[in-house]
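Could you show me just one protein sequence together with its fold in token form as a worked example?
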Amino acid sequence: MKKPRIALVGALAVVALAMTGCSASASGTDSAGGNTLTYLEPQTWNTLYPPAGGFYPNGGVLNQVTDRLLYQDPETLELEPWIAAELPEVNAEATEYTFKLRDGVTYSDGTPLDAENVVKNLDLFGKGDTKRALSVSEAINNYDRGEVIDELTVKFFFTAPSPGFAQAVSTINSGLLSNKTLDRTSEEFGPGNADKIIGSGPFVIADEKVGSELKLTTRGDYDWAPKARDHQGAAQIDGIDIVVVSEASVRVGTVVSGQADIARQIPAPDEAQFLADGLTLVAASTNGVNNSLSLRFNHPLLNDIKVRQAIIAGVDREKIVDTLFTENYPLATGILAKTALGYTDTSKYYQYDPAKAAKLLDEAGWVAGSDGIREKDGQKLSITFNEALPQPRSKEVVTLIQEQLAKIGVGVELFAGDQAAQDEARLDEDKIQVYHSMVGRADYDVLKSQFYSTNRNALLNFDTKTKTVHDTELDSLLDQVASVPTTEERQKASAAAQQRLAEQAYVLPLFEEPQVFGLRSSVKGFHTESIGRPSFYDITLGK
């Protein structure tokens, strides 16, 4: 039986439904600290260097303290001017972009956000700095250099077409920082340094308790929001207290009781609590690569396509979604969400068929052992999945898959551990053979970000030991997505790459992953950006 969809915020709609039922008397103004918003995060941030800000706790901070050249409307996904005074002038090959900048924009330390500063930002983000351990932004492709034309005009040059650049400069990965901030090392962008990270955004980081809390205050002279926002000028709240609360039941209970205003990552079983009077649930689309499994095909246990196909056929995705989630988590019909740019339906490759799975394993020479797990040449067919801590209910998802694959003789183990342990093991196929993850970005390039050999490399298509690419055809298709100039060409390249991923049984998409927020109905004006990160600029707190 299907479960009720509470709310959907994304490319198609921005809806926040106030529910009826049992009431709680507290409101944001009298229970959560006057006119200061209390926001609960399940994990702590680990860097405020924008190109490395994709981790949602990082982006949730960067989205409050930095501005970008362009703004992407979360409903239409259209680009609009922000710090740029107008949309860029782009040549036919998409290798040159010229931006006119707004006059009078400053950072919170009083320094100007001018052409020289913008070039310094994008030169760092587009090239990185190995000496300071600062990575290249995965959102920026084929970057060559920036050039100051005059105080308020910049021009960017690329070595090949870079059609995703305009959207890239609308993301938190291109959040603009002061000159002094840009001189910091990777370590100096990390915990313990939050109040030294200077942006031009509507909020300023005032204080930090490492690993547990950030205090943001409102910048009184802020006056350069995108025209599409609900209001202009300074934010209407005094500030934000971002508090790390890892236990989901505590996050839920704190908001329900009126002791906090908003919490992120409300588990599906707790959504019903937000049906009560005075509470609201918002599920924001992430518009990118779906919550999915990447099968690392170069590993000896997975290099036979029949084994990969068997694993895919042996997983009942619909049962997983119906058992663990609500209709806020639609069953995936491809590696990209339906709302993602470039989406192609490849659902025919992901049909549940345990009989077919068993037949494929038989054909591949894997026979049942005494414990029920198949064997071949003295080796057990036992594979290890990571626990994707940022993803909802990852451990429960893997546990269900473990039960399902056991029926066809495939053993599944879970690589447990905190985020540091998961990060360390992520690129080691001997530790993790099936990688559970997702990526949000409202651009065609999101597919390249996830699977390209020198980006996130989720499939481990690039061998760091031999410096070789295993599937050059896939890499070539992904490269085309980010390096052909027209929308039509990008759509064609994206469709071909998705087809390759499906045909080769490299991925198993599970569901379209939202960011689910629970909030007090007294919180008005809550929005998310185009992939579900919170934006508190328009919020007001009332009874």
Q: What stands out?
A: The first helix runs from residue 28 to 31. Confidence is low (pLDDT under 50) at residues 1-33. The chain has 14 helices and 28 strands. The first strand starts at residue 17 and ends at 18.
